[in-house]
Amino acid sequence: MLVTLAFLLYSSIIWILPNFSSALVIPYIDENILNHFDNDPFNEYIEQNKIKPFNLKKNLPPILTPDKINDENRSLHKDISKIPSYVIDNCPLVHLYSEETYFPDDIKEYTKHFTLKDSDGNSIIDTPLSLQNLTSSYKVIHDDNETIVESNSLYMTSIDDFDKDPTWLLGKQPEYGTGYLKDAPAVLFVVDKGNGWVDAFWFYFYPMNGGPYIMGYGPWGSHVGDWEHSLVRFFKGKPQYLWLSAHSGGTAYQFGAIEKLEKLRHDEDGKLTPEVIERPLIFSARGTHANYASVGQHPHDVPFFFMPLSDFTDRGPLWDPSLNFYSYIYDGNKSVKPMNNQTSELGLNWLLYRGTWGDKQLPAKDPRQKWCPAQWRYIDGPIGPLFKNLQRQSLCQSIKSWKPFNHGCPARRYLKRGNGLTAERNDLIGDNCGVLLYNIRPKWLRSILRFVTWRGVLCNIMEYSTG
Ligand SMILES: *[C@@H]1O[C@H](CO)[C@@H](O)[C@H](O)[C@H]1NC(C)=O
Ligand SMILES: *[C@@H]1O[C@H](CO)[C@@H](O)[C@H](O)[C@H]1NC(C)=O
Ligand SMILES: *[C@@H]1O[C@H](CO)[C@@H](O)[C@H](O)[C@H]1NC(C)=O
Ligand SMILES: *[C@@H]1O[C@H](CO)[C@@H](O)[C@H](O)[C@H]1NC(C)=O
Ligand SMILES: CC(=O)N[C@H]1CO[C@H](CO)[C@@H](O)[C@@H]1O
């Protein structure tokens, strides 16, 4: 709560200064002039883009936890042998950043560049790893003494110096035109949530997370290995929600709010059909690969909330993960089942590995390590996909205690727009507060509020309370 207050205060100060002068002139402007200012760009935007405000569906049955699911209320057939086609048809397309350095990679190839070490730097496996070497715990024999080491204390540790950007760290680029990424399958987990609900978790693996720069210096908070994901939540085969991971948080949307791209449908065997379908479109930020629903500049929330840090997205190379992916049906609990041949070849043990997918945070004395107030240059790599709360009922992976208004992780009905020069149509639609403001009636009150609070204090409060 204290952090939230501090944040609001901070936002107020940075937003109120440029707005102060406009607030002062208000008494001299009459209603007609304000109406003249207000050409209702939001309605225009809805009209042009055929966005229908999405109705929240209130009467749908509850989403169940894994232990509550039985044969009578499961959504998927018990012996399901194929990923449902609606999951593939609604797989998000991902626009990578146009000047991205670190592209997606195949986890199978990636692991070959690592050995396995414990937190003191002792070797657990000192030869190049294969994905099959990853598992939940390891037997270590030392002076005839056998000990079991749990994987959660272990680190995949690069053989090459990752600070020098070896080729394998750069990942693989999607094919222009089709979005096919031959050498970097995405990883799909389909989880039955009971009562007609099904969650499709699309995981995107990148060999490196390049952190942001502060006033030209950086990067800060970089790490080797980067697992990001999106969640498409279906009810009876119809997509209802989409959640996007970004740093340790993310954003939930009504599915209808998300931008769509028309694409030819692929049949169950991956063959192109003449049928045109609408696919959701998301954006992966430069370096950090945080996912957003719009292009432009996106201020970070955590863990840098006092820093002017932002992510950037644009319409760079388009990746279509539905053309190449590993896939599993997971019950959210114990059983996980590979759903195609390239997935079966990976085995299942890697899913149980609880260690990091990249190097341990470099020690302070390492010349590659640097410190800026709030963050190190290189931090720990991430943990694997099965430990990202796939059994969740909420759309969010975790609930942020410093966002007290958002405890339920509500799904946004309108796109959260990027700011800045690179944002598209930002002039028309305004920032996110603009979206909220356009719901205000009567119009003259809205005009005044818009005039006074445009990007102002009230905006921030509204944004945080109603998002
Ligand atoms: C999940 O695990 C719990 C505890 O191990 C068990 O009681 C429950 O039956 C499991 N649920 C499923 C769907 O396997
Ligand atoms: C199905 O799930 C509901 C919870 O929504 C539970 O109350 C009910 O007992 C389950 N059905 C059966 C047949 O167990
Ligand atoms: C790692 O996996 C490979 C097979 O992929 C196997 O040949 C090798 O023995 C394993 N190494 C260890 C230390 O388990
Ligand atoms: C095995 O480990 C135990 C306790 O860690 C130690 O007391 C013992 O000396 C070790 N034995 C050998 C042969 O190193
Ligand atoms: C999991 C899976 O899809 N396995 C298939 C792999 O391919 C053989 C034939 O080539 C099938 O028989 C398996 O069912």
Brief synopsis:
The chain is an alpha+beta fold. Helices cover 18% and strands 26% of the residues.
What does this structure look like?
- With 467 residues, the protein is an alpha+beta fold.
- The protein has two domains: 2-51 and 417-466, no CATH class; 66-406, no CATH class.
- It contains ten helices and 21 strands.
- The strands form six sheets. Strands 11-10-9-8-7-18-19 form a seven-stranded mixed β-sheet.
- Strand 13 and strand 14 form a beta hairpin.
- The chain starts with a helix and ends with a helix.
- The model is unreliable at 1-56, 302-307, 401-407, 425-435 and 463-467 (pLDDT under 50).
- The site of one 2-acetamido-2-deoxy-beta-D-glucopyranose has 4 residues, from loops.
Provide key terms for this protein.
single chain, alpha+beta, 2 domains, 7-stranded mixed β-sheet, 5-stranded mixed β-sheet, 21 strands, 18% helix, disordered N terminus, disordered C terminus, binds 2-acetamido-2-deoxy-beta-D-glucopyranose, signal, Vacuolar protein sorting-associated protein 62, Vps62, VPS_Associated
Topology overview:
Blueprint: H1 2-25, H2 31-37, H3 41-49, H4 85-89, E1 93-95, H5 107-110, E2 114-118, E3 123-125, E4 137-142, E5 145-150, E6 154-158, E7 186-194, E8 197-209, E9 223-235, E10 238-246, E11 249-254, E12 260-266, E13 272-284, E14 291-292, E15 296-299, E16 310-313, E17 318-319, E18 325-330, E19 336-338, H6 341-344, E20 371-372, E21 375-376, H7 426-429, H8 432-437, H9 443-453, H10 457-466
Parallel strand pairs: 1-13, 7-18
Antiparallel strand pairs: 1-17, 2-3, 2-6, 4-5, 7-8, 8-9, 9-10, 10-11, 12-13, 13-14, 15-16, 18-19, 20-21
One 2-acetamido-2-deoxy-beta-D-glucopyranose binds at residues 62, 64, 68, 70, 72-73, 194-195.
